[in-house]
Amino acid sequence: MGSFYVNATVEASADKAADFLKTKQLNAFVMPTAAQQCVVYEAICDMQDTEHMHHLLLELSGQLDCVVLGVLNHDSDMLLLCLYKAGEYLGAHTCGYDFDEMHEGCEVDEDGELIEPEPKSEEEIAIKAQQKHQSAVNMSQLLATAYQCADKQEAILAAMTAEFVFANEVQETLAGIIGLPDYSIGWGYKYISESIREGHSEDGLDTSKVIKVGE
To answer: Containing H/E element for 83?
Structure first.
């Protein structure tokens, strides 16, 4: 079974991010990673609630006047990247299967029998592939600008379009290019809760640094 996690790398102090989450009365963890960088793991986002994730990160980026990169890993088959800056939604891109593709062939009829999806034509497949590539190009430009590394746009694009076994491999490569913290890879609210409950740090997570917000 693959991993499921959601988090956001915030280019602002952990204390400011935690204060914002407190005003929203949300349950979350915040990991400081630099003086002006932290990773936020919020409980509702971690349930793969993309609408809540979008509105929360949009407001967070506006209140803290900073860049926020949200990531959603779904069963290690899909990595959704959502970028925000100073209250503006810049764009999103999905690496691997998107939600619609993963759900194809999963619908059932009144008798509980699987409904076979309509086969796609070669033209439809080609259009979908072109749209996905253009989305990756657009996101590579946005990330290169947001993280002030225009000379690394090609490397960012290559990372997002490379074949992978596990979706977090894409995030690991991107982290090395644009400077995302290790704590943004593989961790979500549930996984951190479990690690704290078990009373030990594992996989490089220093639970003593985690700021807890809410229950």
So the answer is: strand 78-85
Cα distances from 76 to residues 5, 19, 59, 98, in angstroms, run 9, 31, 27, 12
Angle value at C-alpha 74, between 69 and 77, nearest 5 degrees: 110
Tokens of 169: 């491999």
Q: Are 27 and 43 in contact (CB under 8 A)?
A: yes
Q: Which DSSP state fits 186?
A: S
Which residue type occupies 185? I
10 phi, psi to nearest 5 deg: -115, 125
The model's pTM: 0.88
Helices (H), 78-207: 99-103, 122-146, 153-161, 168-178, 189-197
How many C-alpha atoms does 174 have within 13 Å on its Cβ side? 28
Confidence of residue 136 (pLDDT cuts 50, 70, 90): very high
Is residue 64 a contact partner of residue 17, using CB atoms and an 8 Å limit? Answer: yes
**Mean pLDDT, the chain, integer:** 90
Q: Could you give the 3-state DSSP secondary structure of residue 212?
A: strand
Instruction: For residue range 78-95, list pLDDT tens digits in order.
Output: 999 999 999 999 999 999
Q: How far apart are CA 8 and CA 30, in angstroms?
A: 10
